Each structure stands twice: as structure tokens, then as C-alpha cells.
Amino acid sequence: MTGTSTKAPSTLDTYRQVLAVTGRLLPLVSFLGRLPVAVIQFGSVLLVTRTSGSLATGGTVACALALGQVAMGPFVGRLADRHGQRPVVLAFALANSLAVAGYTLGALRALPTPLLVALGVLAGATVPGIGPLARARGVALVRRAGGDERAVNAVLSLESTMDELSFVLGPALIGVASVVAHPAYAFGAAALLVAVCGTAFAVHPTAAAVPRAAAEGRPRARSGDRTRMPRQVHVVRVGLVLLGVLLGGCGAGITALTQELGHEDQAGLVYAAMGVMSAVVGLAMAAVPERFALPARWRVATGAAALLSLPLIVTHSMPLLYVVVTLFGALFAPNLITGFGLTERAVPRARLAEGMTVAASAFVGGQAVTLAVAGRLAQAHGPAAAFAVGSAAAVLAFLVALRVPPLPAPAEPATPAVAAP
After folding, report:
1. Are residues 247 and 372 in the same domain?
2. Residues 51-74: pLDDT tens digits?
């Protein structure tokens, strides 16, 4: 870059630079490709409850689906690191499309609970992991193009914003389908989306951006020799599990409180308010200066989340719930973006996709288990009990953030890449 000006690029300019490297089509297909995950995660309880007549069955099957995704997510990332994203995403996207269709048909036919649990596990286990793999791909593209930490932060901010929007739009699609006809229609759309947009993400020219482990510059002495994950990675994963617990506790508390107040139909709107605020703040995170280091940023974000979660425990009206949840939502994107940023900086380059998928699985796993546990607590002791579980997890996440060791220096960029079409 030439010229005499030393003024830092604006946030909008940084996003333009990122899109110039990734291409405008990639964010679109990655967003549409990850939307089915939100649909099946949030819609499973509603679909199975309607077809079986049992809320307990709906919750059990939804938890099985989430745990299937958590268990297989790291394996998907490991395969992508070893064989490249293209064949892995292509195979899992097509398998997931068939699994979601089979799961939907099983629910419509009111199969016995064990069979529905098995179909739910299969639907979760075949999720192609487009969200975390898109993070890995975007970061690799920016690094290859010589981008700085600000550009990497913009990639992570954009990806987290798309995650938040998908988890706002996913429940909305389920809600519309339920009101107009049946939630199964939203599941049919999800199966079609993952097949079409998952395939588009897999075959996009940028799929080769993340180098395979075997293609890294250093030789591998033995077939079983793998680069070891540093301590920072494991500490961050614990923190992400706790953030998942925080969201799970808040989700269970919101559902219980809206039911207690006689406004259960507004639970989705409350989630949406939290998600929209999180998405807006997520986009603004690209403006955070590099001198505000990631470990310090995470300590501030987790500490603020712990403080802002406390008012939820004493919230007893719908207007106050909207206000408190919206303010609390402003802290979620900073926590997730920083957690993924710490992961990106700490994991070995040859295991980037695996690192991102494990980080995502840690968050989803904490959320899935807590939704089931906190839901029972809320039923027995009221919404405040579920919110208290989330607040306690936020405090623990802050204590974990205090233990994050110093990060390694950023990796030197490789040969600049040509902008994607």
C-alpha cells in the first residue's frame, strides 16, 4: 500500500478487504449452509413433541441430536485437516441431507423413542461443520493474503455474526412453518439447503485455502506423529464449554419465565432480541484495536457477561426480560469471537480446522447438556434456578479466562493468495 497517510483502515474498509480475499459468494453459501443446523437444533423439540405428544421425548431426541454433533464435530475437522475441506464437506453435506430427511420422516411416522434417538444422533453426527470450517478457511485466506490481526478479527467477527443470524432465522423459520402448516416443512427446507449450499461451499475454489496436514512444509516422521495442542487451546475450550452452559441456562430460564408469565409464544422473540444485539455487536468487533490483546479482551468479555447475567435471576416481567436479555446479548458475540480468536492463534497451522470444530463442539456441548439439566431445575425451582446456573458458569468462565497463558506470536503470512471469484 502506497501513500503518505498512516491512518488505520476503517472497519468497513477492513470488511471490504476480507470480502476481496474470500469473494462475495463464499459468505453467502456458508451462511445458508449452516442455517440448517439452527433449524434442526431449535426445531427438534417442537417437531418431535408435536408428532409424539410428549415434551420429554422431544427434549430427549433434541439432546441426542446435539450430542451426536458434538461427538463427531472434532472428527470432521480432523478429516478436513488431513484430506482437505472439499471431499469432507461434500460427503457430510450429502449424508446430512439424507439423515435430516430420514429423521423428519421418522418423527412424522411417530417411531418409537429409541429409533428417534438413533435418527437424531445420525442427523447430528453428519453435520458438515460449515461454520467452524468457514472460520478456518477465511482465516487461512486472509493469512495467505498477508492480512494483519485486524483482518483476522474481521473474519471471526463476520463468521460469528452469521452464526448469530442463523440462530435468529432458524427458530423463525420453524415458527412460521409451525403456524402455517407443520414444522416438518422447515426440516425439509433444511435438508435441501444443506445439500445445495453445503455442496456449493465444498466445491468453491477457496476450499484449497486451508493446507492439508501432510502438505505442510515439515516432514512427518511417523504416520501417527501429530503436532501437539498447546495448553492455551485446552484452557480456551474449557471456557467455551462454560459459555455454552451460560447460554443453555439462559435459554432454559427464558423458556420457563415466558411460560410462567403466560407468554410462552414470545420465547422466540426474546431469543431473537438477544441474537440480533449479539450480531450487531459482533460486526462492530472488527473495530477493536490490535493493542487490546486477545487474553485481556476475553477477561473483560467474560467478566462483563457474568455481571450482566445477574439481573436475569431477579427478572419477573416481560418488559424487563426484553431489556435485560438484549443488554446481555451484547456480550455473547465478543465472548465467542474472542474464544475463536484465541483458538486460531494457539492451534498449530496443520490442525486449524480441527481446532475450530472442537471449539464449536465445546460450546454446543455445554449448551445442549445444560438445556436438559437447567430445564428440569426451572421446572422444579422456577426460572431463577436456570438463570443462576448460567450466571455461575459465567463466573467460572471469567476465572478460566484469568488463566489463559501468553499467546505465541502470529504466524508469518505465506505467499499472497489471489482474490477469490
Report:
1. yes
2. 887 767 877 888 889 889 888 988
